[in-house]
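Dear colleague,

Thank you for sharing your sequence with our group. We've completed the structure prediction you requested, and as agreed, I am returning the results in plain text so they can be pasted directly into your records. Please verify that the sequence below matches your submission; if there's any discrepancy, let me know and we will rerun it promptly.
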Amino acid sequence: MRALRAAARHGSITAAAAALGRTRPALSRRIARLERQLGTPLLVRTPRSCVPTDAGRLLVDAAARAAASWTPRPR
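Please find the predicted structure tokens below.
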């Protein structure tokens, strides 16, 4: 999910990979696996950029809301 959120935020898989400290191929594989699991494309890819599909935007927004509402348990 972090991979998809980063790609949507940065507008490219290369920039997202750099921001997350991952390689571009690793990040691309992670997003492709998520797309296969969900059975729908999450990004529209071009040679230099990517844009979330409607499904991708819904998932990114839901993940952002979940992350914002998450509070770690005290240890």
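Summary note from our side: The longest helix spans residues 54-69.

Kind regards,
the structure core
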